[in-house]
Amino acid sequence: MIVFNKAEYDRESPNRNIIPLTAELDEQGRLEIGGCRLSHLAKRYGTPLYILDEITLRATCKAYFNALKKFYSALSLPLYASKANSSKLLTALVAEEGFGIDVVSGGELLTALAGKMPASRILLHGNNKSWQELALALDHGATIVVDNSHDLQIISELVGNRKLPVSLMLRFTPNIECHTHEYIRTGKLDSKFGFGPEQIESIFKKLLACSWARITGLHAHIGSQIFELEPHRDLVGIMADAIQLGRSMGHPIVDLNVGGGLGICYVSSDDPPSIQNWVKNIAKAVTVSCERRKLSLPRLICEPGRSVVATAGVTLYTLGSQKHIPGMPSYLSIDGGMSDNPRPITYQSIYTAFLADYPTQKVIQEVILVGKHCESGDVLLKNLYLPKSKSGDILVVFATGAYNISMSSNYNRVPRPASVIVFNGHADLIQLREQPEDLLFYDIVPPRLSSLC
Ligand code: LLP
Fold it and tell me: What stretch of H or E contains 69?
Protein backbone atom coordinates (compact mmCIF):
# COMPACT_ATOMS: atom_id res chain seq x y z
CA MET A 1 0.00 0.00 0.00
CA ILE A 2 1.55 3.31 -1.04
CA VAL A 3 0.96 6.37 1.08
CA PHE A 4 1.36 9.56 -0.96
CA ASN A 5 2.80 11.45 1.94
CA LYS A 6 6.22 12.94 1.47
CA ALA A 7 6.99 12.62 5.16
CA GLU A 8 6.91 8.81 4.78
CA TYR A 9 9.47 8.54 1.97
CA ASP A 10 13.04 7.41 2.48
CA ARG A 11 14.71 10.65 1.45
CA GLU A 12 18.24 9.33 2.08
CA SER A 13 17.98 6.38 -0.29
CA PRO A 14 15.36 6.92 -3.04
CA ASN A 15 15.80 3.35 -4.36
CA ARG A 16 13.86 2.21 -1.27
CA ASN A 17 10.71 4.04 -2.44
CA ILE A 18 8.52 3.04 -5.37
CA ILE A 19 7.62 6.62 -6.18
CA PRO A 20 9.72 9.76 -6.75
CA LEU A 21 10.51 11.97 -3.74
CA THR A 22 8.31 14.79 -5.03
CA ALA A 23 5.18 12.67 -5.63
CA GLU A 24 2.19 14.12 -3.76
CA LEU A 25 -1.51 14.70 -4.08
CA ASP A 26 -3.06 18.11 -4.80
CA GLU A 27 -6.18 19.30 -2.91
CA GLN A 28 -8.40 17.28 -5.26
CA GLY A 29 -6.37 14.11 -4.67
CA ARG A 30 -4.67 14.16 -8.09
CA LEU A 31 -1.07 13.05 -8.40
CA GLU A 32 1.72 15.56 -8.94
CA ILE A 33 5.43 14.95 -9.48
CA GLY A 34 8.01 17.73 -9.44
CA GLY A 35 5.14 20.13 -8.74
CA CYS A 36 3.42 19.21 -12.06
CA ARG A 37 0.02 17.54 -12.22
CA LEU A 38 0.46 14.29 -14.17
CA SER A 39 -2.80 14.60 -16.10
CA HIS A 40 -1.70 18.11 -17.20
CA LEU A 41 1.59 16.73 -18.48
CA ALA A 42 -0.31 14.04 -20.39
CA LYS A 43 -2.50 16.68 -22.00
CA ARG A 44 0.41 18.95 -22.86
CA TYR A 45 2.88 16.37 -24.19
CA GLY A 46 0.66 13.43 -25.13
CA THR A 47 1.07 9.82 -24.02
CA PRO A 48 2.88 7.51 -23.62
CA LEU A 49 5.18 9.93 -21.85
CA TYR A 50 8.35 9.29 -19.86
CA ILE A 51 8.83 11.71 -16.94
CA LEU A 52 12.02 12.21 -14.96
CA ASP A 53 12.01 13.88 -11.54
CA GLU A 54 15.17 15.98 -11.18
CA ILE A 55 15.01 16.13 -7.38
CA THR A 56 14.94 12.33 -7.02
CA LEU A 57 17.74 11.89 -9.53
CA ARG A 58 19.99 14.42 -7.82
CA ALA A 59 19.19 13.08 -4.33
CA THR A 60 20.22 9.61 -5.47
CA CYS A 61 23.49 10.84 -6.96
CA LYS A 62 24.26 12.74 -3.75
CA ALA A 63 23.49 9.62 -1.70
CA TYR A 64 26.11 7.60 -3.62
CA PHE A 65 28.66 10.41 -3.68
CA ASN A 66 28.35 11.20 0.03
CA ALA A 67 28.30 7.55 1.11
CA LEU A 68 31.55 6.89 -0.74
CA LYS A 69 33.15 9.91 0.91
CA LYS A 70 31.81 8.90 4.33
CA PHE A 71 32.58 5.19 4.34
CA TYR A 72 35.75 4.92 2.26
CA SER A 73 38.94 6.61 3.41
CA ALA A 74 40.79 6.63 0.06
CA LEU A 75 39.80 8.01 -3.36
CA SER A 76 36.48 6.97 -4.90
CA LEU A 77 34.43 7.62 -8.01
CA PRO A 78 30.81 6.67 -8.71
CA LEU A 79 30.05 6.07 -12.39
CA TYR A 80 26.55 6.14 -13.83
CA ALA A 81 25.88 3.06 -16.00
CA SER A 82 24.28 4.87 -18.89
CA LYS A 83 22.76 1.73 -20.41
CA ALA A 84 19.98 2.34 -17.86
CA ASN A 85 18.97 5.57 -19.62
CA SER A 86 21.30 7.47 -21.89
CA SER A 87 20.81 11.08 -22.93
CA LYS A 88 22.77 14.29 -23.19
CA LEU A 89 20.94 15.91 -20.31
CA LEU A 90 21.19 12.91 -17.99
CA THR A 91 24.93 12.81 -18.67
CA ALA A 92 25.27 16.50 -17.88
CA LEU A 93 23.24 16.15 -14.65
CA VAL A 94 25.21 13.20 -13.30
CA ALA A 95 28.49 14.89 -14.32
CA GLU A 96 27.44 17.94 -12.31
CA GLU A 97 26.78 15.65 -9.33
CA GLY A 98 30.38 14.43 -9.51
CA PHE A 99 29.74 11.14 -11.31
CA GLY A 100 31.65 9.63 -14.18
CA ILE A 101 29.91 7.40 -16.70
CA ASP A 102 30.07 3.84 -18.02
CA VAL A 103 29.25 3.38 -21.71
CA VAL A 104 28.99 0.19 -23.76
CA SER A 105 28.75 1.38 -27.33
CA GLY A 106 29.83 4.14 -29.69
CA GLY A 107 26.33 5.62 -29.32
CA GLU A 108 26.53 5.82 -25.52
CA LEU A 109 30.08 7.15 -25.80
CA LEU A 110 29.06 9.90 -28.22
CA THR A 111 26.13 10.79 -25.94
CA ALA A 112 28.46 11.01 -22.93
CA LEU A 113 30.85 13.27 -24.84
CA ALA A 114 27.94 15.41 -26.10
CA GLY A 115 26.72 15.72 -22.50
CA LYS A 116 30.18 17.16 -21.67
CA MET A 117 31.34 14.32 -19.45
CA PRO A 118 35.12 14.71 -19.07
CA ALA A 119 36.79 11.83 -20.93
CA SER A 120 38.87 11.08 -17.83
CA ARG A 121 35.61 9.98 -16.16
CA ILE A 122 34.35 7.78 -19.05
CA LEU A 123 34.77 4.00 -19.12
CA LEU A 124 34.07 1.98 -22.26
CA HIS A 125 32.76 -1.55 -21.68
CA GLY A 126 31.57 -4.26 -24.04
CA ASN A 127 32.26 -7.88 -24.94
CA ASN A 128 32.52 -7.16 -28.67
CA LYS A 129 33.75 -3.63 -29.18
CA SER A 130 34.28 -2.57 -32.75
CA TRP A 131 37.35 -0.90 -34.21
CA GLN A 132 35.41 2.33 -34.47
CA GLU A 133 34.28 2.20 -30.85
CA LEU A 134 37.77 1.48 -29.57
CA ALA A 135 39.27 4.17 -31.80
CA LEU A 136 36.73 6.73 -30.56
CA ALA A 137 37.58 5.90 -26.95
CA LEU A 138 41.32 6.13 -27.59
CA ASP A 139 41.01 9.39 -29.53
CA HIS A 140 39.09 11.03 -26.69
CA GLY A 141 41.12 9.51 -23.87
CA ALA A 142 38.30 7.47 -22.33
CA THR A 143 39.43 4.41 -20.37
CA ILE A 144 38.80 1.07 -22.03
CA VAL A 145 37.73 -1.94 -20.01
CA VAL A 146 39.38 -4.87 -21.77
CA ASP A 147 36.91 -7.73 -21.89
CA ASN A 148 38.85 -10.29 -23.97
CA SER A 149 41.84 -10.91 -26.25
CA HIS A 150 39.93 -9.59 -29.25
CA ASP A 151 39.88 -6.16 -27.57
CA LEU A 152 43.61 -6.41 -26.91
CA GLN A 153 44.37 -7.32 -30.50
CA ILE A 154 42.45 -4.34 -31.89
CA ILE A 155 43.84 -1.90 -29.33
CA SER A 156 47.41 -3.00 -30.05
CA GLU A 157 46.85 -2.34 -33.74
CA LEU A 158 45.18 1.02 -33.09
CA VAL A 159 47.87 2.12 -30.72
CA GLY A 160 50.51 1.55 -33.41
CA ASN A 161 53.43 3.84 -32.79
CA ARG A 162 51.85 5.99 -30.10
CA LYS A 163 54.49 6.86 -27.56
CA LEU A 164 52.25 7.06 -24.50
CA PRO A 165 51.06 3.83 -22.95
CA VAL A 166 47.28 3.39 -22.78
CA SER A 167 45.62 2.96 -19.38
CA LEU A 168 43.33 -0.05 -19.39
CA MET A 169 41.07 -1.79 -16.95
CA LEU A 170 40.61 -5.57 -17.10
CA ARG A 171 37.20 -7.18 -16.74
CA PHE A 172 37.20 -10.22 -14.61
CA THR A 173 34.48 -12.91 -14.12
CA PRO A 174 34.61 -13.79 -10.43
CA ASN A 175 32.26 -16.81 -10.48
CA ILE A 176 29.81 -15.39 -7.98
CA GLU A 177 26.19 -16.43 -7.66
CA CYS A 178 23.50 -13.86 -6.93
CA HIS A 179 19.75 -14.27 -6.85
CA THR A 180 18.36 -12.28 -9.70
CA HIS A 181 16.87 -13.03 -13.12
CA GLU A 182 19.22 -15.32 -15.05
CA TYR A 183 19.39 -12.86 -17.99
CA ILE A 184 20.87 -10.16 -15.75
CA ARG A 185 23.41 -12.33 -13.87
CA THR A 186 26.91 -11.73 -15.18
CA GLY A 187 29.33 -12.92 -12.53
CA LYS A 188 29.14 -16.66 -13.19
CA LEU A 189 31.89 -18.57 -14.99
CA ASP A 190 29.65 -19.26 -17.97
CA SER A 191 29.11 -15.52 -18.52
CA LYS A 192 30.06 -14.09 -21.91
CA PHE A 193 31.85 -11.21 -20.19
CA GLY A 194 35.45 -10.86 -19.07
CA PHE A 195 38.40 -13.09 -18.21
CA GLY A 196 37.78 -16.06 -15.94
CA PRO A 197 39.85 -16.58 -12.75
CA GLU A 198 41.91 -19.26 -14.52
CA GLN A 199 42.90 -16.81 -17.29
CA ILE A 200 43.83 -13.82 -15.21
CA GLU A 201 47.44 -14.78 -14.46
CA SER A 202 48.29 -15.52 -18.08
CA ILE A 203 46.66 -12.25 -19.20
CA PHE A 204 48.70 -10.31 -16.65
CA LYS A 205 51.80 -12.10 -17.98
CA LYS A 206 50.94 -11.41 -21.61
CA LEU A 207 50.34 -7.73 -20.88
CA LEU A 208 53.69 -7.31 -19.15
CA ALA A 209 55.22 -7.81 -22.57
CA CYS A 210 53.07 -5.04 -24.13
CA SER A 211 54.88 -1.75 -23.66
CA TRP A 212 51.81 0.15 -24.87
CA ALA A 213 49.51 -1.21 -22.13
CA ARG A 214 49.25 -0.03 -18.53
CA ILE A 215 46.83 -2.07 -16.46
CA THR A 216 45.56 0.45 -13.98
CA GLY A 217 42.37 -1.20 -12.81
CA LEU A 218 40.28 -4.30 -12.37
CA HIS A 219 36.55 -4.48 -13.00
CA ALA A 220 33.78 -6.97 -12.29
CA HIS A 221 29.99 -6.77 -12.40
CA ILE A 222 28.01 -9.64 -10.93
CA GLY A 223 24.43 -8.83 -11.87
CA SER A 224 21.56 -6.43 -11.53
CA GLN A 225 18.53 -5.84 -9.25
CA ILE A 226 20.38 -7.53 -6.35
CA PHE A 227 18.91 -7.33 -2.83
CA GLU A 228 21.71 -9.13 -0.99
CA LEU A 229 24.92 -7.60 0.34
CA GLU A 230 27.04 -10.79 0.54
CA PRO A 231 27.78 -11.24 -3.17
CA HIS A 232 29.60 -7.90 -3.37
CA ARG A 233 31.50 -8.69 -0.16
CA ASP A 234 32.66 -11.97 -1.69
CA LEU A 235 33.46 -10.21 -4.93
CA VAL A 236 35.77 -7.75 -3.19
CA GLY A 237 37.79 -10.55 -1.58
CA ILE A 238 38.27 -12.25 -4.95
CA MET A 239 39.22 -8.96 -6.61
CA ALA A 240 41.71 -8.12 -3.85
CA ASP A 241 43.48 -11.42 -4.62
CA ALA A 242 43.61 -10.48 -8.28
CA ILE A 243 44.95 -6.99 -7.46
CA GLN A 244 47.61 -8.54 -5.25
CA LEU A 245 48.64 -10.86 -8.04
CA GLY A 246 48.67 -8.09 -10.66
CA ARG A 247 50.64 -5.69 -8.48
CA SER A 248 53.13 -8.42 -7.55
CA MET A 249 53.75 -8.96 -11.26
CA GLY A 250 54.44 -5.25 -11.74
CA HIS A 251 51.11 -3.86 -12.96
CA PRO A 252 50.30 -0.44 -11.48
CA ILE A 253 46.73 -1.32 -10.44
CA VAL A 254 45.12 1.62 -8.66
CA ASP A 255 41.40 1.19 -9.47
CA LEU A 256 39.00 -1.42 -8.14
CA ASN A 257 35.64 -1.27 -9.91
CA VAL A 258 32.89 -3.40 -8.37
CA GLY A 259 30.27 -2.70 -11.06
CA GLY A 260 26.65 -1.91 -10.27
CA GLY A 261 23.70 -4.03 -9.28
CA LEU A 262 21.93 -2.47 -6.30
CA GLY A 263 18.22 -3.26 -6.52
CA ILE A 264 15.25 -0.91 -6.30
CA CYS A 265 11.57 -1.17 -5.26
CA TYR A 266 9.17 -1.91 -8.07
CA VAL A 267 6.43 -3.20 -5.74
CA SER A 268 5.91 -2.85 -2.02
CA SER A 269 7.27 -6.34 -1.23
CA ASP A 270 10.69 -5.35 -2.66
CA ASP A 271 13.21 -4.60 0.06
CA PRO A 272 16.58 -3.54 -1.37
CA PRO A 273 19.44 -2.32 0.85
CA SER A 274 19.87 1.42 1.11
CA ILE A 275 22.54 3.11 -0.98
CA GLN A 276 24.39 3.91 2.26
CA ASN A 277 24.43 0.27 3.39
CA TRP A 278 25.43 -0.98 -0.03
CA VAL A 279 28.37 1.43 -0.23
CA LYS A 280 29.35 0.89 3.42
CA ASN A 281 29.39 -2.89 2.94
CA ILE A 282 31.64 -2.64 -0.11
CA ALA A 283 33.88 0.06 1.37
CA LYS A 284 34.43 -2.00 4.48
CA ALA A 285 35.12 -5.16 2.49
CA VAL A 286 37.72 -3.34 0.36
CA THR A 287 39.40 -1.84 3.42
CA VAL A 288 39.53 -5.13 5.32
CA SER A 289 40.60 -7.20 2.29
CA CYS A 290 43.42 -4.78 1.48
CA GLU A 291 44.60 -4.58 5.10
CA ARG A 292 44.74 -8.38 5.27
CA ARG A 293 46.86 -8.54 2.14
CA LYS A 294 48.92 -5.46 3.08
CA LEU A 295 47.80 -3.68 -0.07
CA SER A 296 47.49 0.09 -0.33
CA LEU A 297 43.86 1.10 -0.80
CA PRO A 298 42.79 1.37 -4.45
CA ARG A 299 40.46 4.04 -5.77
CA LEU A 300 37.01 2.53 -5.27
CA ILE A 301 34.75 2.76 -8.32
CA CYS A 302 31.15 1.58 -8.55
CA GLU A 303 28.81 1.66 -11.53
CA PRO A 304 25.15 1.87 -10.51
CA GLY A 305 22.60 2.31 -13.28
CA ARG A 306 19.12 1.19 -12.24
CA SER A 307 19.33 2.53 -8.69
CA VAL A 308 20.42 5.98 -9.96
CA VAL A 309 17.58 6.61 -12.35
CA ALA A 310 14.73 4.08 -12.01
CA THR A 311 12.83 5.66 -9.12
CA ALA A 312 13.14 9.14 -10.64
CA GLY A 313 11.16 7.97 -13.68
CA VAL A 314 7.50 7.28 -14.31
CA THR A 315 5.52 6.60 -17.48
CA LEU A 316 2.08 7.97 -18.32
CA TYR A 317 -0.36 6.15 -20.57
CA THR A 318 -3.93 6.82 -21.69
CA LEU A 319 -6.47 4.06 -21.15
CA GLY A 320 -8.29 2.93 -24.29
CA SER A 321 -10.34 -0.14 -25.09
CA GLN A 322 -11.65 -2.65 -22.56
CA LYS A 323 -12.61 -6.26 -23.01
CA HIS A 324 -14.80 -8.03 -20.48
CA ILE A 325 -14.83 -11.82 -20.31
CA PRO A 326 -17.26 -13.31 -17.79
CA GLY A 327 -15.50 -14.75 -14.76
CA MET A 328 -12.14 -13.17 -15.64
CA PRO A 329 -10.39 -9.89 -14.91
CA SER A 330 -11.07 -7.42 -17.73
CA TYR A 331 -8.44 -6.48 -20.26
CA LEU A 332 -7.64 -2.77 -20.16
CA SER A 333 -5.55 -1.44 -23.02
CA ILE A 334 -3.02 1.37 -22.90
CA ASP A 335 -1.58 3.37 -25.78
CA GLY A 336 1.94 1.92 -25.39
CA GLY A 337 3.25 -1.40 -24.15
CA MET A 338 6.17 -3.70 -24.86
CA SER A 339 7.80 -1.17 -27.22
CA ASP A 340 8.25 1.46 -24.50
CA ASN A 341 8.63 -1.02 -21.61
CA PRO A 342 9.93 -4.42 -22.71
CA ARG A 343 10.83 -5.49 -19.16
CA PRO A 344 7.60 -7.39 -18.32
CA ILE A 345 7.78 -9.53 -21.46
CA THR A 346 11.54 -9.99 -21.16
CA TYR A 347 12.02 -10.61 -17.44
CA GLN A 348 8.44 -11.01 -16.14
CA SER A 349 9.02 -7.78 -14.21
CA ILE A 350 6.17 -6.31 -12.20
CA TYR A 351 5.34 -2.70 -11.56
CA THR A 352 3.10 -0.46 -9.49
CA ALA A 353 0.46 1.62 -11.27
CA PHE A 354 -2.34 4.07 -10.38
CA LEU A 355 -4.90 6.24 -12.11
CA ALA A 356 -3.15 9.62 -12.07
CA ASP A 357 -6.22 11.63 -11.06
CA TYR A 358 -7.78 9.04 -8.72
CA PRO A 359 -4.88 7.28 -7.02
CA THR A 360 -6.60 6.88 -3.69
CA GLN A 361 -10.13 6.09 -4.81
CA LYS A 362 -11.53 2.76 -3.69
CA VAL A 363 -10.49 -0.05 -6.02
CA ILE A 364 -13.41 -1.96 -7.51
CA GLN A 365 -11.91 -4.04 -10.32
CA GLU A 366 -9.06 -6.38 -11.03
CA VAL A 367 -7.68 -5.82 -14.51
CA ILE A 368 -5.01 -7.09 -16.84
CA LEU A 369 -3.22 -4.09 -18.26
CA VAL A 370 -2.23 -4.80 -21.84
CA GLY A 371 -0.30 -2.90 -24.48
CA LYS A 372 -1.35 -2.08 -28.02
CA HIS A 373 1.09 -4.42 -29.73
CA CYS A 374 0.11 -7.34 -31.87
CA GLU A 375 1.29 -9.96 -29.42
CA SER A 376 -0.63 -11.73 -26.64
CA GLY A 377 2.43 -11.49 -24.38
CA ASP A 378 2.23 -7.71 -24.48
CA VAL A 379 0.97 -7.55 -20.90
CA LEU A 380 2.29 -4.68 -18.81
CA LEU A 381 0.71 -5.73 -15.52
CA LYS A 382 -1.45 -8.57 -14.28
CA ASN A 383 -3.49 -8.44 -11.04
CA LEU A 384 -3.82 -4.67 -11.12
CA TYR A 385 -6.61 -3.35 -8.88
CA LEU A 386 -8.12 -0.05 -10.01
CA PRO A 387 -11.03 2.24 -9.18
CA LYS A 388 -13.76 2.61 -11.80
CA SER A 389 -12.00 3.71 -14.98
CA LYS A 390 -12.95 4.92 -18.42
CA SER A 391 -11.32 5.40 -21.77
CA GLY A 392 -9.21 8.58 -21.65
CA ASP A 393 -8.12 8.20 -18.03
CA ILE A 394 -4.39 8.67 -17.43
CA LEU A 395 -2.49 5.82 -15.81
CA VAL A 396 0.91 6.24 -14.20
CA VAL A 397 3.44 3.40 -13.91
CA PHE A 398 6.20 3.96 -11.34
CA ALA A 399 9.91 3.17 -11.33
CA THR A 400 10.31 3.18 -15.10
CA GLY A 401 13.35 5.48 -15.26
CA ALA A 402 15.80 2.64 -15.92
CA TYR A 403 15.91 0.15 -18.79
CA ASN A 404 12.67 1.43 -20.33
CA ILE A 405 13.54 4.16 -22.84
CA SER A 406 16.98 2.63 -23.30
CA MET A 407 15.46 -0.74 -24.24
CA SER A 408 12.52 0.66 -26.20
CA SER A 409 11.85 -0.39 -29.78
CA ASN A 410 9.67 0.49 -32.75
CA TYR A 411 7.89 -2.87 -32.78
CA ASN A 412 4.79 -2.58 -34.95
CA ARG A 413 6.29 0.72 -36.15
CA VAL A 414 5.12 2.39 -32.98
CA PRO A 415 7.03 5.67 -32.45
CA ARG A 416 9.00 6.11 -29.22
CA PRO A 417 7.46 8.38 -26.54
CA ALA A 418 8.69 11.84 -25.58
CA SER A 419 10.57 12.42 -22.30
CA VAL A 420 10.23 15.40 -20.00
CA ILE A 421 12.08 16.45 -16.88
CA VAL A 422 10.11 18.04 -14.03
CA PHE A 423 11.37 20.38 -11.34
CA ASN A 424 9.57 22.83 -9.05
CA GLY A 425 6.42 23.09 -11.15
CA HIS A 426 8.30 23.29 -14.48
CA ALA A 427 8.34 20.62 -17.16
CA ASP A 428 10.78 20.59 -20.06
CA LEU A 429 11.10 18.25 -23.00
CA ILE A 430 14.36 16.32 -23.04
CA GLN A 431 13.57 13.91 -25.84
CA LEU A 432 11.20 14.54 -28.74
CA ARG A 433 8.37 12.17 -29.46
CA GLU A 434 9.07 10.18 -32.62
CA GLN A 435 6.47 10.57 -35.36
CA PRO A 436 5.24 7.67 -37.51
CA GLU A 437 6.70 9.44 -40.56
CA ASP A 438 10.15 9.47 -38.90
CA LEU A 439 10.15 5.71 -39.05
CA LEU A 440 10.12 5.80 -42.86
CA PHE A 441 13.36 7.78 -42.89
CA TYR A 442 15.68 4.77 -43.12
CA ASP A 443 13.58 2.84 -45.66
CA ILE A 444 15.10 2.66 -49.11
CA VAL A 445 13.46 1.35 -52.25
CA PRO A 446 16.16 0.36 -54.77
CA PRO A 447 15.87 2.14 -58.13
CA ARG A 448 15.15 -1.12 -59.95
CA LEU A 449 12.00 -1.56 -57.78
CA SER A 450 11.07 2.08 -57.53
CA SER A 451 8.03 1.63 -59.76
CA LEU A 452 6.47 -0.37 -56.91
CA CYS A 453 6.05 2.57 -54.53
N1 LLP B 1 28.18 -2.18 -15.00
C2 LLP B 1 28.10 -3.16 -15.93
C3 LLP B 1 29.31 -3.68 -16.54
C4 LLP B 1 26.85 -3.66 -16.29
O5 LLP B 1 26.77 -4.64 -17.19
C6 LLP B 1 25.68 -3.13 -15.69
C7 LLP B 1 24.37 -3.63 -16.06
C8 LLP B 1 25.82 -2.11 -14.75
C9 LLP B 1 27.09 -1.66 -14.42
C10 LLP B 1 24.66 -1.46 -14.08
O11 LLP B 1 23.93 -2.35 -13.32
P12 LLP B 1 22.68 -1.82 -12.46
O13 LLP B 1 23.22 -0.93 -11.37
O14 LLP B 1 21.78 -1.09 -13.39
O15 LLP B 1 22.07 -3.05 -11.94
N16 LLP B 1 18.08 -4.75 -18.85
C17 LLP B 1 18.09 -5.34 -17.55
C18 LLP B 1 19.31 -4.95 -16.77
C19 LLP B 1 20.59 -5.30 -17.45
C20 LLP B 1 21.81 -4.84 -16.71
C21 LLP B 1 23.00 -4.99 -17.56
N22 LLP B 1 24.20 -4.52 -16.97
C23 LLP B 1 16.81 -4.96 -16.81
O24 LLP B 1 15.98 -4.25 -17.38
O25 LLP B 1 16.57 -5.42 -15.69
Answer: helix 54-71
